[in-house]
Design brief:
Layout: E1 8-13, H1 16-25, E2 39-43, E3 49-54, E4 64-70, H2 73-82, E5 91-92, E6 95-98, E7 101-103, E8 109-114, E9 120-125
Parallel strand pairs: 1-3, 4-9
Antiparallel strand pairs: 2-3, 5-6, 6-7, 7-8, 8-9
Domain VOC: 5-126
Protein name: VOC family protein
Organism: Paenarthrobacter nitroguajacolicus
């Protein structure tokens, strides 16, 4: 029933203006509804997107909440670092980052960063 349908993420933000500035300045994303002041809708590749809404509950999740599939994680990390994005370093059983990038069991690469609202976002290398 849902397997062929597009999906999108829903992310919380304590300060929607601060989040909007971060997503614009650091990630190069502009909302589809620029006049709204309590929620923002973003479109990304292949008809995907996400919704950011204001709530005091932002930043409480300790898991990855949304991720982008990219062709080159190292290049994307470097580009985002140049814009001031800080990547997380992890050292868990089965997952260790080096310079912010982990090599996954299947050989792909992944990296994680936090937005201004405490949401954990990821990059995963495709193919």
């Amino acid at each position: 029933m849902l397997k062929d349908q597009q999906v999108g993420a829903v992310l919380p933000a304590q300060d929607i203006a601060r989040a909007r500035a971060y997503y614009s300045e650091k990630l190069g994303l502009e909302p589809e509804n620029p006049d709204d002041d309590d929620n923002l809708q973003y479109k990304c590749g292949d008809g995907t997107g996400f919704f950011l809404y204001q709530t005091p509950n932002a930043g409480t999740a300790r898991n990855t909440q949304m991720g982008w599939m990219v062709s080159d994680v190292a290049a994307t990390v470097a580009e985002l670092r140049d814009k001031g994005v800080t990547f997380e370093d992890y050292d868990f059983p089965g997952l260790k980052t080096e310079n912010g990038i982990a090599t996954m069991p299947d050989g792909s690469a992944a990296a994680w960063f936090l937005d201004t609202e405490g949401n954990i976002l990821s990059l995963t290398q495709t193919g």
